[in-house]
Amino acid sequence: MILGGVVSVVSMIMVLLGVAYFVIIERKGLSVLQRRHGPNKPTLVGLLLPVADGVKLLSKEWVVPVAANQIVFLVGPIFFFFSYSMWLVYPVSGPVLYFKLSVLYFLCMASVKVFGVIMCGWSSNCQYGLLGAMRAAAQSVSYEVGFSTLLFCPLLYMGSFELFEVRMDGGFYVISCVEVFLMWFVSALAETNRTPFDFVEGESELVSGYMVEYGAFGFTLLVLAEYGSIMFMSVLCVALFLSVGSWVWLFGDGLFLAGAVLVSYLFIVVRGTLPRYRYDKLMDLCWKVVLPLSVGFFMLSMVVGL
């Protein structure tokens, strides 16, 4: 029991370090895609920039607006940090927790973020924050329906709700259900509020959306939770659609991690190449395209799986 707790804490710390350097990798990747200089200070090519940013943010005073609901304003970012509990079911060899319904656990933990969004935006007592929270909540709730339905499509072939068993099944299902993979990736972009669906932020109308009044430690929690969700979505994508199964025993977890890194880079490439979508078209895409097609693919997967 104690060993499992120590392993969990160490895993969380490693994920936080990975998220910190994922931010700098994204900034450098965007600079390459846009043919400009990225962050190159301090130190050699900016390798210690995440450390400098962390020290700067954590050393600043956390200012709470006078008109804000102070208790809710301070508690809101904690709900985002619950997203790191998804890493307890990380499908690596010798997982910390092993139970049969880890996929359902992931869906539950991913849904908690909506409460944090509403609490942060409403408690700020700011029009920009409230409108950004309403956008984010409606977007997340809408796409969770199609996202969950598409998630169950490959699981019907595998016959398991445990991520480690799904990974070890090694079906490489992206070949047989490439359309499900593409729709699932689009839904993952909308679920994590990433470009081209980053309507939580809008420089012309919402500034930074629900996090506009946050700074210092609160802003750090929000950013870490956002990028942590992106990294776990990449891991889940590889486990569901790109897993190589028995090859894992030959190459260890390195091949699995390499696939997750490549998928996370795909998030960066999409941000650097596609313009922001329009919000009404995003909702039309969800309810008129993604949801009907996801239900159809789910029924087809049931027939094929049986």
UniProtKB/TrEMBL annotation:
- One Pfam family assigned to this protein is NADHdh
Catalytic activity reads: a ubiquinone + NADH + 5 H(+)(in) = a ubiquinol + NAD(+) + 4 H(+)(out)
InterPro entries for the chain: NADH_UbQ_OxRdtase_su1/FPO, NADH_UbQ_OxRdtase_su1_CS
Q: How does it sit in the membrane?
A: Multi-pass membrane protein
- One GO cellular component term: mitochondrial inner membrane
Q: Which UniProt keywords apply?
A: Membrane, Mitochondrion, NAD, Transmembrane, Transmembrane helix, Ubiquinone
UniProt-listed Enzyme Commission number(s): 7.1.1.2
Task: Report the domain of life of the source organism.
Answer: Eukaryota
The residues that cross the membrane are 6-24, 71-90, 102-124, 136-158, 170-187, 207-225, 230-249, 255-274, 286-304
Localization per Swiss-Prot or TrEMBL: Membrane; Mitochondrion inner membrane
PROSITE patterns from the entry? COMPLEX1_ND1_2 (PS00668)
**GO biological-process terms attached to the record:** aerobic respiration
Q: Which PANTHER family match?
A: NADH DEHYDROGENASE SUBUNIT 1, NADH-UBIQUINONE OXIDOREDUCTASE CHAIN 1
The UniProt entry's sequence similarity note says: Belongs to the complex I subunit 1 family.
Q: What is this protein called?
A: NADH-ubiquinone oxidoreductase chain 1
Its source organism is Semele scabra
